[in-house]
Design a protein that fits this description.
By secondary structure, this protein is α/β, with parallel strands linked by helices. Helix content is 29%, strand content 24%. The structure holds uridine-diphosphate-2(N-acetylglucosaminyl) butyric acid.
Length: 446
């Protein structure tokens, strides 16, 4: 078991580089299943979820290898590292995935349940092989996270979908058939799954009320390079003309807007000055506007953006919504910000039903919070005091670390494997910015 030990009171000052987005790369990895041959992904973040997804692909017959960009191409096929890819901390940013002509169709081991994103293999597998078996996924403890929109859409494309002993089974008698699909909610995962199924379907598919997250536009760009015909990328209506075959390509992952946003909030909270290199301000418009309202100075540059905090943040109200709304994945970080702001704020969560579990932990550090349904009211007084808190999911963990940076004394964040799922080299990067934080291994009790 590992924990982070943070001593509060330092400012974040300097530069940090933003890696590729977790929520893009996992789907790009799934998309590799759509074509035999070698897919190469670059700007791949060194995070636990990539390791798990690589193992899921390996279980489907793929060979997955990492190499730093500077070392050129990965070793040739047939020389895989045991266990798929290196553990976080040891890996490069380039991932080579070799998909055989006859990839398997069953992703039903325990591994698959560990990350929700593994459900993204469902669409590609049923489209290319006519059958897919995917264990019902797990992931973060942030809500019920149903799959009805995925299932309904795949059924409309002609697949027969059943749940058999906790395994989602999708079968198609021949090619899927293009159709019009209206999503009840702009679900990110359902949009991606249906998109990846539709690119090989017969005829035209229209996905309406599609999610518009930048990670979906990134997936569309990779699919288009593979030979898919997609109109409306980045909009809420995707028009897909199915093709017979796709080919493997090299593709660079879009920068992680949530990691960039986390450092931006940290800069404001600590009255710091951080250049977030590679961060795309255009993918964080509402977030940066909110941070400016809270007192940050934001300078957008060609190669990223700089965030400066000069005084105690002003309180702001925030409502999370699907993109381009305020991202739910920055909710804990912004609640931590509000906990030290100068007035009362109202935060509303509209995407997940259990993201406020985080508030219980923040309360242990002295935050004055009151939750009611999907709202939380955060009030001054604003002094946070160090304590022992638990990360319940990746973003909650990041929010607690930010709170620790401004709390008086020492904060210990446990269950940091959640943070490792989405933040590459978090401790190292925060230390480089001046934070007093370290990763501590708990000694095993005999
Ligand atoms: N939903 C349904 N039915 C469905 C699909 C979704 O009811 O068939 C509901 C969910 O229960 C949830 C809401 O719709 O309440 C949003 O779910 P969505 O499908 O949009 O999210 P997701 O694909 O499961 C991805 C990210 C999340 C991010 C959300 C929203 C990945 C691997 N995960 O999840 O990221 O919060 O989109 O932007 O891409 C994170 O990185 O910390 C994280 C949780």
């Amino acid at each position: 078991m590992e924990r982070f030990v943070v001593t509060g009171g330092t400012r974040l000052v300097g530069e940090v580089a933003v890696p590729g987005a977790k929520n893009s790369v996992l789907k790009l990895m799934a998309a590799s299943l759509l074509a035999a041959g070698r897919t190469t992904l670059t700007a791949v973040p060194d995070i636990l979820d990539v390791t798990v997804m690589a193992d899921v692909l390996t279980g489907l017959g793929a060979t997955v290898q990492r190499a730093p960009r500077s070392q050129g191409a990965a070793p040739s096929q047939g020389d895989p590292r045991p266990g798929g890819v290196a553990a976080p901390g040891a890996a490069g940013d380039r991932l080579c995935i070799d998909i055989p002509q006859d990839a398997g169709g069953a992703a039903d081991g325990d591994l698959v349940r560990r990350i929700r994103a593994s459900v993204a293999v469902l669409g590609p597998l049923v489209a290319r092989r006519g059958e897919a078996r995917v264990a019902l996924p797990g992931g973060d403890a942030i809500g019920s996270r149903a799959l009805d929109i995925h299932i309904h859409g795949l059924t409309q494309l002609g697949a027969v979908v059943d749940v058999e002993d906790g395994i989602l089974v999708a079968r198609s008698d021949g090619r899927l058939q293009g159709t019009s699909i209206w999503l009840d909610f702009p679900s990110v995962g359902a949009t991606e799954n249906l998109l990846m199924a539709a690119v090989l379907a017969k005829g035209t598919t229209v996905i309406d009320n599609a999610a518009r997250e930048p990670e979906i536009a990134d997936l569309c760009a990779m699919l288009a390079a593979m030979g898919a015909r997609i109109g409306g990328a980045g909009s809420s209506t995707l028009v897909i003309d199915g093709v017979d075959e796709l080919s493997a390509v090299e593709h660079e992952t879009v920068p992680d807007r949530i990691v960039a946003g986390t450092y931006a909030v940290g800069a404001l909270m600590t009255c710091g000055d951080v250049m977030i290199r590679g961060g795309r301000a255009g993918n964080l418009t509402i977030v940066l506007e909110k941070l400016v309202e809270a007192g940050a100075q934001v300078d957008v540059r060609d190669d990223g953006f700089r965030v400066v905090g000069r005084e105690r943040p002003r309180s702001i109200d925030v409502v999370t919504l699907p993109y381009p709304g305020f991202p739910t994945d920055l909710l804990p970080q912004v609640i931590a910000l509000e906990a030290i702001s100068s007035g009362t704020s109202l935060i509303t969560e509209n995407v997940f039903d259990s993201r406020f579990v985080f508030c219980r932990e923040l309360h242990k550090l002295g935050a004055d919070l009151r939750t009611d349904g999907h709202h939380v009211v955060v009030r001054p007084p604003a002094k946070l005091t160090g304590g022992r808190v638990t990360a319940s999911d990746v973003r909650a963990g990041a929010g607690l670390v930010l709170a620790g940076l401004v709390a008086e004394g020492v904060t210990e964040v446990t269950e940091v494997h959640h943070i490792d799922r989405g933040y590459a080299h978090f401790v190292e990067d925060l230390r480089a910015l001046g934070a007093d934080i370290s990763r501590v291994q708990d000694r095993a009790v005999a």
